[in-house]
């Protein structure tokens, strides 16, 4: 007898549900968001957001690049933080990097969650990172494409989650001090995903 097919570990990517209510077009808000393809370790912004893991002790991907460029003091500072929960973030100084602070955000491993829970955890990374940045008086923040590398979050699912969380924060009272959020991506698949969803979350005026 033929066995039934094994269900996927998580629901297959659903089509994106547009945000409700539809975000109002705002040239001021639009000017506060930028997408850049490049190396986040080169940016002299107030805070760079790293895609870390729960140990905060470094790893591969953008985390490895940030630790290499910052030097060993960063790992010593991270060790003192005692790890971080998934969906949250912690901040350190930036040491050898040209930015002022590093915010270490721990994104979800996509395969371990279902769609909605992973999305909520990913949104939490963006919201918590922005709250930490605003609390430290940062005006410019650069984000890595959290969870879209080793952690396997499909870029087309991650981009609307990130954009929604960034928009909500910038519109809220805590977001007032943040002049610029730069999303820094390394790969064309992330650039394409952001370009697809920006008109929905930051509609043209
Ligand atoms: N600048 C900007 N983006 C980069 C850079 C860079 N220098 N290097 C890679 N990326 P990943 P995750 C992009 O895997 O999925 C680590 O081992 C990359 O193309 O770095 O959250 C941690 O320690 C991708 O789009 O982070 C964790 O264990 C994005 O950064 C785990 O990986 C994020 O990919 C976290 O996995």
Automatic annotation (TrEMBL):
Q: Where is this region: Disordered?
A: 7-27
Q: Which residues form the Macro domain?
A: 20-202
| Residue ranges crossing the lipid bilayer per the database entry | none
Segments of skewed composition (Pro residues): 7-24
Task: Supply the name of the protein.
Answer: A1pp-domain-containing protein
Gene source species: Trichocladium antarcticum
The full protein's residues present here are 19 to 223 of 280
């Amino acid at each position: 007898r033929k066995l039934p097919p094994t269900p996927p570990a998580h629901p297959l990517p659903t089509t994106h549900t547009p945000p409700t209510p539809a975000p109002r077009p705002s040239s001021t808000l639009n000017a506060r968001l930028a997408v850049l393809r490049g190396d986040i370790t080169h940016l002299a912004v107030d805070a760079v957001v790293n895609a870390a893991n729960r140990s905060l002790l470094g790893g591969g991907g953008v985390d490895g690049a940030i630790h290499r460029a910052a030097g060993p003091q960063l790992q010593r500072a991270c060790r003192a933080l005692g790890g971080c929960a998934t969906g949250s973030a912690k901040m350190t100084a930036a040491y050898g990097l040209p930015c002022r602070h590093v915010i270490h955000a721990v994104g979800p491993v996509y395969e371990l969650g279902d769609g909605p829970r992973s999305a909520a955890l990913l949104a939490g990374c963006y919201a918590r990172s922005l709250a930490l940045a605003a609390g430290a008086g940062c005006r410019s923040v650069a984000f890595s494409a959290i969870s879209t590398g080793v952690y396997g979050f499909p870029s087309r699912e991650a981009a609307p989650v990130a954009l929604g969380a960034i928009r909500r924060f910038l519109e809220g009272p805590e977001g007032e001090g943040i002049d610029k959020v730069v999303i820094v991506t390394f790969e064309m698949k992330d650039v394409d995903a952001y370009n697809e969803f920006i008109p929905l979350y930051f509609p043209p005026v």
